[in-house]
Design a protein that fits this description.
By secondary structure, the protein is of the alpha+beta class. Helix content is 50%, strand content 15%. The chain folds into two domains: 105 residues, no CATH class; 74 residues, SH3 type barrels, CATH 2.30.30. It is built from six helices and five strands. Strand 1 and strand 2 form a beta hairpin. The chain has a five-stranded antiparallel sheet with strand order 4-3-2-1-5.
Length: 204
């Protein structure tokens, strides 16, 4: 019986991540196709339209927006819808949270050395965190709450989208060689992932 249960759990661990990932991708692709296909069909003759063209058009549009945002004037234009959403009650929290998550995963707005180990005095316990703010930054709301030698560190929680933001002296932290997205993935999985350390080679 134990062998059957162990085999079931092992099989679920292999199959479920695949199914969930495929379903999320399928949902996203269907959303893009269903939203943009009618627009393309208005422009193109019906006989010209091939399923999947809307997805290709979406990719090309993203490339065009990303390329054109290199110019400051056009960049401000693309930022305008987001600024409007940030002024609307309700949408401000949702849009801001999604933008922060995407920026975090992409490593945007994070300098080298953003990932640190935070020591909890008086114990030897350390937590992996990501520096989000530093004291002494003019015009920043969070920075105004801190002293110049303090930093704000986001401590993510395993198997959860939440976490804690702690304000600690820089002396309570030590930098580790890791990107914010890697640190987030490592902590969210509770360290159970199969990610190898930089430079690690599998020995036969």
């Amino acid at each position: 019986m134990k062998v059957l249960v162990r085999s079931l759990l092992t099989g679920l661990a292999i199959v479920l991540p695949l199914i969930i990932t495929i379903e999320l991708l399928r949902w996203f692709l269907q959303l893009v196709e269903g939203s943009l296909a009618p627009l393309l069909q208005l422009v193109l003759p019906v006989s010209w339209y091939i399923p999947g063209m809307a997805i290709l058009g979406f990719v090309l549009l993203c490339i065009l927006i990303g390329f054109s945002s290199r110019w400051s004037g056009i960049h401000r234009l693309w930022q305008l819808p987001g600024k409007i959403l940030m002024q609307l009650p309700g949408s401000k929290q949702i849009y801001g949270m999604l933008q922060d998550i995407i920026d975090l995963m992409a490593g945007k707005n994070f300098a080298d050395g953003s990932v640190v180990m935070v020591k909890l005095p008086p114990s030897d316990i350390e937590l992996i965190g990501i520096i989000t703010k530093q004291g002494g930054q003019a015009g920043d709301r969070m920075s105004a709450l801190m002293q110049d030698d303090q930093i704000a560190v986001f401590i993510p929680m395993a198997y959860n989208v939440g976490g804690y933001t702690v304000i600690v002296p820089r002396s309570c932290t030590r930098n580790i060689d890791m990107k914010p997205a890697e640190a987030l993935q490592l902590v969210l999985s509770g360290g159970l992932g199969s990610n190898k350390a930089p430079g690690h080679r599998h020995e036969q």
